[in-house]
Amino acid sequence: MENSVENSNSSAFDFMAWASFAISLVGSVLGIVYLPVDVWVKAFMSMSYIFTVASCFTLAKAVRDKQESSKIINRVKSAKTEKLLSDYEKIIN
Asked: Among 13, 31, 75, 91, which is disulfide-ready with 9 (CB 3.0 to 4.6 Å)?
């Protein structure tokens, strides 16, 4: 069986992802705060924004979990195939 090392993101990529998230969060919050509308409209937009951010995190987690589960299933299938091949080689030899 092969030992594989999972790819990890570089620290520059991680920084860029978190920095872009922080900048977009601050920009959106400031945009809502300084929007020239009534308070109840700002409250509605704030709740909608929070829901959108939370649903984006949930969607990203769901996609990641699906990808990781397919990796596990492929590893199990590979292990079964390798076991069958090794058993077959034992029978032949």
From this structure: 13
